Amino acid sequence: MIERNGEYTLIRSRRKTLAIHIKPNGMVEARAPLRLPKSEIERFIASKANWIKKKQMQIAVKKTVPRVIPQPQYAKGEFEHTVRELVKTWEHRLDVETAFVGIRAMTSRWGSCTAKTRRVRFNSARILPARMFGIRRRSRTRTSKRK
Known about the structure:
Layout: E1 2-4, E2 8-13, E3 19-22, E4 28-33, H1 38-47, H2 49-64, H3 76-94, E5 100-104, E6 111-114, E7 119-123, H4 129-133
Parallel strand pairs: 2-4, 5-7
Antiparallel strand pairs: 1-2, 3-4, 6-7
């Protein structure tokens, strides 16, 4: 059962707990058990008013700040060539073979690797060839004292 008023949307269902959700558009949604009195729901929402306002402000700020993905500092062809050469080097070192090497713009990752399909993808906006050439194998040394 769904009830709507100006402040929030109330969704009643066969649940045992009362919860408040803030939707991506900033609207408040309350989810409540079927038999919970409306006065109890409104008291709960009133007690969480500061939290609700804080979350709504965070959503409003997120909407106003544009998401900017930095562009690579190298020409696309040069970047792809560099990545593919580096992958070949690491294939040889690790004695593995990739089926696919791709480059695409991602929002938060440096890249991804799928072992099952042997696919490797790199983020064109985050990885820089200069950093890639600086990759070195770490030597593992034991510092324990054995007698």
